[in-house]
Amino acid sequence: MQVAIDGPASSGKSTISKIAAERFSLAYIDTGAMYRAAAYIKLKYVVEGAAFYTLLQQTEFTFNPKNTPFLICAPQIGEVDISSAIRTLEVTKAVSYVASDAEVRRILTAKQQWAAKGRDVIMDGRDIGTVVLPNADLKFFLIAAAEVRAKRRCDEWIAQGKQVLYEDVLKDILARDTADIHRDAAPLKKAPDAREIDTSLLTIEEVVEIISVCISQLRLG
Ligand code: DC
C-alpha cells in the first residue's frame, strides 16, 4: 500500500504521517528531509554544478527506525549524521532554492521511487501524489492557514529552546509557499485524485483519524 501526503510547510504532514505509519506498520519516508539534506550538502561542502549533482547522486540516505533520513554516506564525505543539521534555520532558508533545481528533483525523485518500490509506505512531501507516486493507493493534500502554520512552527522551535519571532516565521512560511507553488519543476499542487483536508481547526488526532479510516477501508478491500 502506498499513501501520499502532500501539503505546504507546517501543515502537519510529517507528524501525522509518522503516527499513521506506526499505527499501520508502514514505512515512513520524509522527502522534505531529503531536500534538506541536499541543501545541507551544498552549504557544507560548497559544491556547485556537476560536482554537486554527482555528489548527490552518490549519496546514500539511511533511514532510522522512524524512517527519517538521518545518515548520509558518499565516497567524498563518508558517513555523516545529519538529523539535527538539516533542521537549522540556515538549511531551512536555503532549501526552497535547492528544491527548485530540476536536476536535484530528478535525482531525489528516483531515490524516493526506489525507496518506495514494493514496500508499504507513507511518503510525505510536495509532489508525491503528482510526480513521485502518481499511482499511490491513497492521496491526501493537507492545508492550513499560513497564520496557523506559523504559530505551530513557532511553538515547535520555542519548545526546542530556540528564540524566534512569530512575524519572522510567518514571513518565512509565506516565502516558502510562494517558492514551492510557483517553481517550474514539480510545484506544490494537489493531485486531482487527492483528498484535501484543512487542518487549521483540527487536532493532530482528528486528522490521523480521517486518514486512518481511509487506510482501514482500503485494507478491508
Ligand atoms: O517538508 P519540509 O519543510 O521539511 O521540506 C523542506 C523543503 O523541501 C521545502 O521547501 C519544500 C521542499 N520539498 C519539495 O520541494 N518536494 C518534496 N517532495 C518535499 C519537500
| Number of helical stretches of at least 4 residues | 9
In which range does the helix fraction lie? 40-55%
CATH architecture: 3-Layer(aba) Sandwich
- Round the mean pLDDT to the nearest integer and report it: 92
- Shape verdict: globular
Total domains: 1
Q: What small molecules does the structure contain?
A: 2'-deoxycytidine-5'-monophosphate
CATH fold field value: Rossmann fold
Query: What is the name of the CATH superfamily?
Result: P-loop containing nucleotide triphosphate hydrolases
Could you give the distance between the termini?
12 Å
From the helix content, strand content and strand pairing, which structural class follows?
A: alpha/beta
Number of strands: 8
Rg computed from alpha carbons, rounded to a whole number of angstroms: 17 Å
Order of helices and strands: EHEHHEEEHHEHEHHEH
| Amount of beta strand | 15-25%
Unreliable residue stretches? none
Tell me the name of the CATH class.
Alpha Beta
Could you give a short account of the major beta sheet? 5 strands, parallel
Major β-sheet strand ordering: 2-6-1-7-8
Tags for this model:
221 residues; alpha/beta; Rossmann fold; five-stranded parallel sheet; three-stranded antiparallel sheet; globular; binds 2'-deoxycytidine-5'-monophosphate
